[in-house]
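User: Here's a chain of 333 residues. Predict its fold as tokens.
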Amino acid sequence: MSAKGCQETVDHPGHLKFLSAVFYAGSSFLITVVNKTVLTSYRFPSFLCLGIGQMAVALVVLHTAKKCKKIQYPDFDKSVLFKIFPLPLFFVGNHVTGLASTKNMSLPMFTVLRKFTILMTMVLEVYILRKTFPKRLVCSVMTIVLGAMVAACSDLAFDVVAYTFILLNDAFTAASNVYTKKNIGQEGIGKYGVLFYNSLIIIIPTLLASAFTGDLHKAVMFEGWVEAAFIMCFLVSCFMGFVLMYSIVMCSYYNSALTTTVVGALKNVAVAYIGIFVGGDYMFSWTNFLGLSICMAGGLMYSYFTFNIKSSPRATEVHEVKIHVSNGSTQKF
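Assistant: Prediction complete.
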């Protein structure tokens, strides 16, 4: 595998890479806080319905923009399904498990366990995008995982359901980021087509699942609909869901899947520590706080090494870690 695998396949202007990364980080931070407010503070009973609202807003905004000739993406036909599959499956899995885990877990622990997405993304990029990574980058990822494990082992509010959802969310996020990068460059779809058809394909199955499980009924009967403050938070969450989806696609378009994951890790530094003081559901312990700090330090190291690698073409030629897989072949990290 080529040492160039760790670099971007398309050389976009540096300011666009930076701005798209900042846009994604800000959007991700805001929607985490807003979703936490809707699902926890107001006790909205259906994370599926919240996800449906976010997808519906995305469809309306993108369709309106296309009609006004502000953006372009292809009209629907059978070929679109084959071109974009299996991204919609990963997308809906990421959306649903992310909302479910946000509802049942404190913000600091949510952001710590989300760090496993970095390791999963690296593995998928090796197998799917055929990329390589230097040893020091792998070591920083191991530091992040170590900190996450320390924090998770001492979590005084351990919830097996929430932990299951967040680890599934990590896997879906990693797969979604990698396949977004893979599909976004396909001729005839483009970044807006990926965003629109993802939402279009998954909104109906999600709506049916919500109705079948009774979530839709719970959402309709929710008493908070008479409160103006809740309605405002719900609408903001729906709009921010679209903004987040758009920011992910833009960040993946101008950067790599790995960079998109790195930006999420940087955002989590702020979310984790703010979550200790905001939200009211974080149970403090020194061991847990130590795990958080190790994890965040590893995240900063990881980010520094990643952007340093990008600025140094020779960095990918030094210190590769070889991992033997079950079929006897060797993968390089």
